Amino acid sequence: MRQSQSCDACRARKVRCVRENLEDPKQSCKHCIALGIPCTYDYRPKKRGPPNLYLRRLQEAAAAAVASQSEQTNQTNDVTASISPVSAHQSLASPIHSSLSPLQQHIQPPSLEPILTPIQTSAAIISPSRYPIAADSYHNHYSPVNTILPTSTSGALLPQKTDDNQSYSFSESYGGFPAYNWSYKHQQPFPVLLPSVIPPLSYYYRPHRLEDIAPRDSISLIIALFFDFVYPLTPCIHKPSFMADLHTKREERDPLFFALVMSTVASTLVQVPRSYVPMERSVVRKLAQRCYEASRHITTAAYDPPMSTHVVIRYFDCIYHFCEGNDAAQHAAFGEAAHIAVTLRMHEESSYEGLDPIECEVRRRTFWLLFDADKSMSILLGRPICLRDEDCTVHFPKELDDEYIIHSAYLPQPRGKTALVSGLNYISRIFALLGEILVRIRVDKRSPPQGQFATARLEEVQSLHSRIMGALVHTPEPLRLKQTCRQSRLPAECGGAGFRQATFAEVKDFFENPKASRANALNPFLVMQANLYVTQQLVRFVVEQYRDELIMALQGNIDEHQVAEDREAVASDLLNILHSIPIQSIATNGPSLVHKVRFVASTLLDAVRKVETAPASAARAHAFLWDFLSILSEIERNYLLDDDRDGTSSGDGGISMI
Questions:
Q1: What DSSP string describes 493-513?
Q2: DSSP string, 253-273
Q3: CA end-to-end distance (rounded Å), the chain
Q4: SS (H, E, C) 87-116
């Protein structure tokens, strides 16, 4: 680099540097001679442009690695010099746990965050399982991680004991599982320290133990609650193979299976009534978030190649965010699940050739769950349709329970026994009809039909109306609605302050009393009845609304009295359905059912207010429906895990919560 023309002193004073002999580099300039100071030329101009931060990080990382290795070498030499050969052999055999007592090992499990312990892999032969283990077959492009990171970041996901008063325990046996070890400690916030090196995604894609998150007995209890209360509505896991893999601790060999377990637990905790989980709501919420984040750490590094397990995991994550009120995250998770499903061609029947029966049915069930959720979000939130019916050729799932689906064949379902998946098939048919009407509504909104095209469209809509009204005529006996109120009129006991207060008390007992009867909530067919028949009335209402709009466009007027009678019929039928099903079965459906009833009830109330000549019976039906909606809103409130969002209500709350 060429020398600067001015000396350091002149450059600092910003004056001209003058020397008598420019050829002599050792001669001092006139200013330095006058001031009696040394004349130096140490300044070097900086390189133009931004600093090379990448090079700086590499240099810092290399220096840190060298320092850490030298420190570990010194510590190893010190320890080796002071132990016997026997203890040295033991310490080499167990480098992680040798310095921890059994209590410390329980309190400080391996974390999902970067730690100083190296990643250990097992060379043991793994027996074949239902789900192909992604870690054994794929992801060979991930290189082993040897990066050593600071220990200050390893405590973010560790349950640390900070205060004895912060432990929530449940000492009695619960749900057939020993719950003596059911405890969860509040976590104090840890200071966030940025690591000097950002770990690659492959660092997180490694096996973990369930005990890293919570005691195994606690996880087993939550999984049992999933199959008792959540599985009938979302049967996207093959129970026998899932439980077998859980029993053999497959999660300690397969990271993706660990993520599946974590997402299942997280979605279950936000869906089951809080009295079923013996923990405070704030603790349940923290555990659900911890499980979701543990799953997300792994799935972000496991997209390629795609598997059906990815779709199930992201679908469960979508449910978790829906119940937590994370709208953007919910739709992002659903979008990922839907697009991975399309990448796997789960919407095409031809893609199922060559798959074993278990994989086929898991894919079919998962796809139709996504299809139904897509139509539900489309009508309730006004979103575009993602999975169009005309693009789908996949068949409905076979109506077989899981124990009759094995790797090599489909076993016959016993005569007279209704499969749980039949509820999914019937509601998928209803949502398929909803998809047909929504496509027509949105196409006509962009380009309204005229003349004979409008007449043809009206005929199509009337045909859809007939199909939706008869969609549940041939349901099996366990799914058939048992009417308690005659549809021609609404008896006095279907509403009123007395009914409202009694139902509120029943809802409170269901959510807060662990010893309350759960017979109706444990009946999967009663739970599915509520979802089936309420969804049918929702689709019927949408079809009738658009039918009336077409008639108005064709004729220029419409019989307001007939419209009011049709709206009254919808309100009466919906109210009869809600009264025909036990409140515990309705409550088990959670907030999604509340949104459907609220959508119909709010639009019906607007219609009645616009019609001055509406019959008194219509106003009475809508008043009763709003009374019931206040009860449903109480159910929705009890699912909230955030005390800040949890309002107060009572049997006299009326519609103030709506």
A1: GGSSHHHHHHHHHHHHHHHH-
A2: T-HHHHHHHHHHHHHHHTTS-
A3: 76
A4: HHHHHHHCCCCCCCCHHHHHHCCCCCCCCC
**Which tens digits make up the pLDDT trace of 407-458?**
999 999 999 999 999 999 999 999 999 999 999 999 998 998 888 898 999 9
Return the DSSP state at 614.
-
Q: How many CB atoms lie within 10 A of CB 40?
A: 11
Q: What is the pLDDT of residues 20-29, one digit of tens each?
A: 877 777 788 8
Q: Provide the mean pLDDT of the chain.
A: 75
Q: How far apart are CA 540 and CA 464, in angstroms?
A: 9
- What percentage of the chain reaches a pLDDT higher than 90? 35
Q: How far apart, in whole angstroms, are the C-alpha atoms of residue 501 and residue 369?
A: 36
The first and second tokens of residue 66, run together, are 């060298």
DSSP state of 227: I
Integer Cα distance of 432 and 121 in angstroms: 47
- The residue count for the chain: 658
- Residue 226 DSSP symbol: I
Distance of CA 133 to the CA centre of its chain: 22
Contact status, residue 239 vs residue 227, Cβ threshold 8 Å? yes
Would you state the torsion angle of the CA atoms of residues 130, 135, 136, 141, taken in this order, to the nearest 10 degrees? Answer: 140
Give 518-555 pLDDT, tens digit per residue.
777 788 898 899 899 999 999 998 999 899 989 988 88
pTM over 0.85: no
Query: What are the residues whose beta carbons fall under 8 Å from the beta carbon of 245, sequence distance 6 or more?
Result: 129, 130, 131, 251, 257
* CA gap 214, 168 in Å, rounded: 13
Structure tokens at 70: 């030298």
- For 650, phi and psi rounded to 5 degrees? -150, 180
Helices (H), 174-300: 216-225, 239-247, 255-269, 281-299
Amino acid at 79: V
* Cis bond before residue 305 (omega within 30° of 0): yes
Helices 357-381 and 422-446 pack at an angle, to 10 degrees, of 40
Q: b or e along 253-283 (b: 16 or more beta carbons within 10 Å of the residue's beta carbon)?
A: bbbbbbbbbbbbbbbbbbbbbbbbbbbeeeb
What is the DSSP secondary structure assignment for residue 229, as one 8-state letter?
Answer: I
Task: Please calculate the CA angle 637-638-639 and round it to the nearest 5 degrees.
Answer: 90
Task: Please tell me the distance from the alpha carbon of residue 23 to that of residue 3, in angstroms, as a whole number.
Answer: 13
The sign one gets for the Cα dihedral 503, 507, 508, 510 is positive
| Nearest to 254, CA basis, from 207, 305, 314, 304 | 207
